[in-house]
Amino acid sequence: MNRPSAFAIDVPAALLDRARRGEHAACEQLYRWFERPVYSLALRMLGDPDAAMDVLQDTLMKVFQKLHGFRGEAPFWGWLRQVAVNECLMRLRSRGREEPFEAEAFEPDLLAHEGLLPPMAADAARLAEALAQLPGRTRAVLWLHHVEGYTHEEIAALLGGTPSFSKSQLARGTRKLRALLDLKEATHA
User: Fold this and answer.
1) Where are the domains of the chain?
2) According to the CATH classification, is domain 103-189 in 1.10.10.10?
């Protein structure tokens, strides 16, 4: 079972109305509430802290520019998360080729929950390092499915593929991730 999305923040309608009117304090509060979830999502999908910061800025800029068009038919956080995912996917597509990123650029602490016991934090760091070695699209499928709770149909629509592509990326990525974690376990033993 997936844990609730870090984006699942109830945003009061009054705060959204104030932000729609361009009230600086309301926009700043929304930025502070969603800064970490957007950055974390982008970092997990792209693996590059600079690109993740760009996605954070671009996502929130687009959200604030288009806030007047948000009708509230779905939760605000779901809309914002979709904008962030789309920004990440555009960057993945624009890279042109699949390259794993440097593991030392990865920030494993973002994957860990506060208050984890040291062995759990070490496991989270190993998982982050292993994720860092996967190709971007594979990493994106794993993250979207397991962490954000997207279905294969939703992932396929986002990536411009088929549900079977999403399923195969998930299966391959899971096998590769398991092999990388087994290798790391063997080297730490």
Assistant:
1) 1-96, 103-189
2) yes
174, two tokens? 């899971």
Residue pLDDT, tens place only, 5-30: 778 888 999 999 999 999 999 999 99
DSSP secondary-structure letter at 5?
Answer: P
Q: How far apart are CA 138 and CA 20, in angstroms?
A: 37
Supply φ then ψ for residue 114, to 5 degrees.
Answer: -65, 145
Name the least confident of 26-30, 104-108, 175-179, 185-189.
104-108
Distance, in Å, from the CA atom of 5 to the CA atom of 74, rounded to the nearest integer, reads 15
Cβ-proximal residues to 114 (8 Å cutoff; 6+ apart), any chain: none
The whole-model pTM stands at: 0.69
State the fold for domain 1-96. Answer: Rna Polymerase Sigma Factor; Chain: A (1.10.1740)
User: Interior CA angle at 28 toward 27 and 31, to 5°?
Assistant: 90
CA distance 43 to 51: 8
CA angle at residue 54 from 3 to 115, to 5 degrees? 35
Only one residue has tokens 């934090």, namely: 121
